[in-house]
Amino acid sequence: MAVLTDPIADFLTRLKNACLAGNEEFTAPYSKIKADIARILQEEGYLWNYEVVTGTRTQLKVKPKFIEGRPVLTDLKRVSTPGRRHYVGAHEVPRVMSGLGISILSTSQGVMSGGNAKRHKLGGELLVNVW
């Protein structure tokens, strides 16, 4: 197994590839932040379901959402990387695709969508934009 320098980008790449390939589910190594990202994506309607599978290694099993054979998630962009962190204030949270997409932030109150961060007047690290 290779050592990953950006496990969040690996999770997002697996998600994007599963959507483009039409796979009903995929697995990724578990971490709390990946589970929080999956929770937000499920709340926003991009995933059917996700679950934590324990065994020799704890895995995150994710089921992307498809409507009439087309994936709901069309694309995503990792904004903040380990080499270049991108922080935004509460009033600087971007609108993704003129409101058609979402942004996911890591704030002092936990990982949340950009809309929730604006409502709670919180800024933080901009992790990913999804549309």
Task: Describe the secondary-structure layout.
Blueprint: H1 7-21, E1 26-29, H2 32-43, E2 47-53, E3 59-64, E4 66-67, E5 70-71, E6 76-78, E7 87-88, E8 102-107, E9 110-113, H3 114-119, E10 124-130
Antiparallel strand pairs: 1-3, 2-3, 4-5, 6-10, 7-10, 8-9, 8-10
Per CATH, the architecture of the largest domain is 2-Layer Sandwich
Please tally the β strands and state the result: 10
Biggest beta sheet attributes: 5 strands, antiparallel
CATH fold name of the largest domain, please?
A: Ribosomal Protein S8, Chain: A, domain 1
What distance lies between the first and last C-alpha atoms, to the nearest angstrom? 31 Å
Q: What's the alpha carbon Rg, rounded to whole Å? A: 14 Å
The unreliable regions are: none
CATH class type of the largest domain: Alpha Beta
Account of the protein in words:
There is one protein chain. This protein starts with 6 loop residues before the first helix and ends with a strand. By secondary structure, it is of the alpha+beta class. It is globular. A hairpin with a 5-residue loop joins strand 2 and strand 3. The relative contact order is 0.18. The chain is built from three helices and ten strands; from the N terminus they run H-E-H-E-E-E-E-E-E-E-E-H-E. The longest helix is centred in the first third of the chain and has 15 residues. It folds into two domains: 65 residues, Ribosomal Protein S8, Chain: A, domain 1, CATH 3.30.1370; 55 residues, 2-Layer Sandwich (Dna Ligase, domain 1). The strands form three sheets. Strands 6, 7, 8, 9 and 10 form a five-stranded antiparallel beta sheet that branches. A three-stranded antiparallel beta sheet has the order 1-3-2, with helices on one face. Strands 4-5 form a two-stranded antiparallel ribbon.
